[in-house]
Amino acid sequence: MEPAFGEVNQLGGVFVNGRPLPNAIRLRIVELAQLGIRPCDISRQLRVSHGCVSKILARYNETGSILPGAIGGSKPRVTTPTVVKHIRTYKQRDPGIFAWEIRDRLLADGVCDKFNLPSVSSISRILRNKIGNLSQQSQYEPSKQTSHPQPQPTLPYNHLYSYPTPIGATGTKMPNGLPTVNSYVTAPSIHPYHPPTQVSPYMGYSGTTSAFVTGPTWQPPSGSALSPHSCDITAPLAFKSMAVTRDSMHPVTASAL
DNA sequence: GTCGTGACGGTTGAA
DNA sequence: TTTTCAACCGTCACG
């Protein structure tokens, strides 16, 4: 894991395997596409594989976000304290109850929905590990809250996955639920990347990534009709805040520094 | 020549 | 502290 130099693709572009392209590049891809430039030309121009261009554009069309998905982590926990509590209750009421019956009951009682319903094996594990050796009082009883409270499990991934509409926090969102491309634009706002001082994997892109926002070759679109999502150019901060919340994903800052 | 897609090797972070 | 696992990434090759 020493991505200081990155790798060079067939087009001569530099990338870091396993890491997302910089936001500036991603943004540039979307911008060029909206200017009517074909993906194959974008691919050549930015030296990004056409598969990647295709993927980023597809994602943008689908989610309205140029940002990559959340890398790493685990699925949100479904065995919340509440769920465990209910399972324990079911078990106490009916010691012979099967895990699958508990599962059905959790669903029927509205404790869980189909999205956060624990698997039978999870329930079995709970019965074995948390309830089987539970004396009488619960470790989740408020009166027994000696350790730190369990992290609220109903939102564990939301903070990561919320950025398909990444600027929702700032309220810059189009009626269709998608942010505008232009909301990401405006040079000073796109500063998630420290300019590659020495050896950035992205120096292969016709200059630094900051060249995309400050260089003479790219004028930020001024809210013309090129955005299918209309033209809100009032959100330079939107991108900035988004970048801040996701700055950990930045290849340069995360890997090369 | 263009584009969509799946395999692949890689990174990441929660459990 | 280390390992495991499942998410994601971009590239490449194929059709």
TrEMBL record:
Keywords: Developmental protein, DNA-binding, Nucleus, Paired box, Transcription, Transcription regulation. GO terms for biological process: anterior/posterior pattern specification; camera-type eye morphogenesis; hindbrain development. GO terms for cellular component: nucleus. CDD domains: PAX (cd00131). Transmembrane segments: none annotated. InterPro entries: Homeodomain-like_sf (IPR009057), PAIRED_DNA-bd_dom (IPR043182), Paired_dom (IPR001523), PAX_fam (IPR043565), WH-like_DNA-bd_sf (IPR036388). Residues 4-130 form the Paired domain. Residues 136-149 have a biased composition (Polar residues). The keyword DNA-binding applies. The keyword Manganese does not apply. It comes from the Eukaryota. It holds the Pfam family PAX. SMART domains: PAX (SM00351). It is found in: Nucleus. This is Paired box protein Pax-9. It comes from Hemibagrus guttatus.
